[in-house]
Design a protein that fits this description.
The protein has eleven helices and nine strands. It is α/β, with parallel strands linked by helices. It binds 2'-O-acetyl adenosine-5-diphosphoribose.
């Protein structure tokens, strides 16, 4: 039984300012592994060996092959009912923003347009030397790191690695939309990686009603206004239905 409070019912309407932060959990039901927990990527791989620029410089082919493997998983799956429910929210609500830590692109594939990708996008690549972006690569399937056709530099995935800054314009916009939101959802994130984790907290401090959806409690659960425990792909469609937005 999902508890829809009066506040949630009243605030989830076409004229409200609504913002959402998502993490790996929203894509779990699509078959994309999360990072933490027993089955998470970081229980099998060491971030320091794979997700940082030093690892890439010392062993570019290994890092590239790992990202190719993750791309293959993502290409084989599609958005789940949780992604589709958020796309529906954007259709119905005029002031709707979706902030995501995910690099899988599944929100856009579901139809969301107003998306702030804090940690980049795994399908996009860029040259580490001249910064040229590549949406398409000469040999998409190769496990060997490709080289830039302009300058010969190595091409890397356009994702944020440990120790790197987030894209500043995107993080600023994310804080802005959180600050002006009346209703804020934190969905499928362990809420431990900064600065993303402070966005829901900041939204509530600025006056938003804060709803968390997760299969288990997180570090922010005691702080939120409403914690809905369960799978986002099951809870979000019910919320839409109950609030007359389905
Ligand atoms: P985590 O793997 O840390 O957390 C995933 C969260 O999703 C956990 O709290 C799970 O309980 C929850 N979850 C799992 N399945 C769910 C479901 N079906 N419905 C709802 N919740 C579910 O992933 P993130 O919080 O996204 O950063 O991790 C944040 C960042 O840490 C990532 O963006 C990545 C990683 O290091 C970078 O790579 C820069």
């Amino acid at each position: 039984m999902i508890e829809i409070t009066d506040e949630l019912r009243n605030l989830l309407n076409p004229d409200s300012a609504v913002a959402v932060l998502t993490g790996a959990g929203i894509s779990a039901e699509s078959g994309v592994p999360t990072f933490r927990g027993e089955e998470g990527l970081w229980s099998k791989f060491r971030p320091e060996e794979l997700a940082n620029v030093d690892a890439f410089m010392s062993n570019p082919d290994m890092v590239w092959a790992w990202y190719q493997h993750r791309r293959e998983i993502i290409n084989e799956v599609g958005p789940n009912p949780g992604h589709h429910a958020l796309a529906r929210m954007e259709e119905k609500i005029h002031d709707f923003s979706l902030i995501t830590q995910n690099v899988d692109g599944l929100h856009r594939r579901a139809g969301n347009k107003n998306v702030y990708e804090l940690h980049g996008n795994i399908q996009r690549n860029k040259c580490i030397d001249c910064g040229k972006f590549f949406d398409k690569l000469p040999d998409e399937a190769s496990d060997k790191v490709p080289e830039c056709d302009e300058c010969g530099g190595k091409i890397r995935p356009d994702v944020v690695w440990f120790g790197e800054m987030l894209p500043q314009d995107i993080i600023h916009r994310a804080f802005e939309v959180a600050e002006k939101s009346a209703l804020f959802f934190s969905i499928g994130t362990s809420a431990v990686v900064q600065p993303a984790a402070s966005i829901p907290v900041m939204a509530k401090q600025a006056g938003a009603y804060l709803v968390e959806i997760n299969v288990e409690p997180t570090v922010i659960t005691s702080y939120v206004d409403l914690f809905l425990q369960g799978k986002s792909g099951e809870i979000l469609p019910v919320i839409l239905e109950e609030c007359g937005l389905a």
